[in-house]
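Worked example 4.2. Below are the chains of a multi-component assembly; read each line carefully before continuing.
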Amino acid sequence: MKADSRVIVMGLGVADVKGVFGTTSGLQDRFGRDRVFDIPLSENAMTGAALGMAMMGIRPVFVHQRADFAFTAAEQIVNQIAKTIFTTRGDYSVPIVIRMIIGRGWGQGPTHAQAPHGFFASVPGLRVVAPSGPRDAYCMLRNAIDDSNPVIFIEHRWLHDLSESDAGLDSILNAPYKAAILRSGEDLTLIGVSYGFVEAARLAGLLGEFGLDVELVDLRSISPLDTENLIRSINKTRRLAIVDIAAPNFSVGAELTRVTVELAWGRLLNFPLHLAPRFAPVPSSPKLALGHYPRLEDMAVQVNRHFGFNLNEESLKTRCMEMNPPRTPLRDQPDLGQVGPF
Amino acid sequence: MNDSLAIREGMNEALNSVELGHLFDLLYVREVELFVARNYSRQLFRCPVHLSIGQEAVAVGVCSQLEVRDHVVSTHRCHAHYLARGGSLLAFFGELLGKPIGCCGGRGGSMHLFDREVNFDASIPIVGSSLSVAVGIGYALSRESGGIVVSFQGDASYESGQFFEAINFAATHSMPVLVVIENNGFSTYSPQNERQPHDFSLEYVAKAYGIGYQALPGDDVDLVASASGLAVDEVRSGRPVILELSTFRRYEHCGPNLDDSLGYRSPSDIESYVNRDPVVIASKKCLESGTSEKQLESLREHICGYIGTVFDRALVANDEGGSGVEAFVD
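Applying the procedure described above to all two chains together yields the following structure tokens:
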């Protein structure tokens, strides 16, 4: 915002005392009410207004505290925002970023925990990105703001409390819309999406202890897909598993599978494996939610069986138990230090 | 104002009064749409068309009060607004013909006229949706200086949630937004009294939001122009205004024909149009103030000649060379 006075931040709560989980705290004091403002509870109209502003050269960052709320603005996003550059042949640019925060845990339930990245990625004219850590969040948000196209910026709530050094930002900034290969491996390409990448990294570590050489990939950009790097990895390892934060049905995982089948069919040793939540609304109760999201142990076992790696399942389970000891009472937050509501 | 200026070339002497100027603009919009209707069966305009025949006084009257720096947002029924705003007739025909010279290169068609040249920022055929975009433009304008945005809406727009959401935002931030309701009494074929309480009035809505409101017949272009002039002044000073103008959509909702045979309007309603036709009203006034029938006929001939010439240019314009179907999507 300091670098570009055209950038504004708008959304429910962006100027309130909590500042959308602290992500916008202090911005109004620093940049003024003209550039950082709370909006009426009219997501659809305000999204249309953001389009009007963008057509006039303003660069709005629109914030939804939950991705679920953005569905009320789907009309403007899908019908207008995604179409304007196309229809006008670029006479108007649409530099809008729409942040959507995905909730999980502490009883978020059916309408506070949906992951809509696949839904929006299915609309031509929208870019969709999902960082998995602070450095990426910073760099990808800057890239999104600089982009003249509309960008849906997916944030998983459980990523907000991660910390990371700020080394190497320039190289990240210079590679927008690219997947990142965090660890090179030969046995399996494991692609994580958003918080799914955190889970994928944990899974890769576990499988590594059992001698598997996993290539760990952070998808980062959902639309456009970095097909070139993804296919290169899959051609090398000949096996693909995807850790997503939404069910595989009609999903980003399904799209990755389609692309893989089209471009690397002859190389594949197995059909791609999806490690993802169930195709069902998210239940509120922690006990039920536990059955909704994939657990490390289940993911490890599925990988082992699906690809026929012949790892000792009892040892895998024991190790998972050590990594994730059962909690009493049942907890569904990323670490025990966190307490709800969040 | 390229083509609308071009069409007036050499006409300044003939158009020696405000009333004649308005009539000239009405005739221009009317004849363009009649041309579209007459030629529609040739299957050259391969897109749905929502004609404004009968409603032109609103477009012409309101746009006559705008400045170059002002902005306009329209709906699916956007031809009259675009032409009255001074949009290029060549780009208009080009768009309906689906050619690269169209204002959107054939990507939008009749319902999506966008033209940055004349600050005609959007035509959005999702009812209610365009007002939201207009208030965003209004927000941007309120940070600059002077310009206003006009959002043309139909009478069904205020059945949509976005209408109220957008008005609320515009009022909260004192935006220079003029909402012009073209109330033709029908949403497609559904009469207003089946869709809204019979005593509903937007006036109370405007009062609730603390913005301006005026309702008047929208058939007499001079009346529309003077009311719009006052509304534009108020809007320019930072107070949103709703101007609700009653009109008569003479043609079918979508398409090149009359639809009297459908029976959704009573014969007496249809007959009443004779006294409401904006072109008839404006012509009468000009005749009464001394313009001769012959002069009016020569204006019409001049306009029709011009339209024919521009259409011929559009018709022979290249079909090829437009950007690819996936261009501008990345």
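Take a moment to check your reading of the output against the notes. Chain A touches chain B at residues 34, 39-40, 42, 44-58, 75-76, 79-80, 84-92, 124-125, 149, 224 (CB under 8 Å). The two ends of chain A are 27 Å apart (CA to CA).
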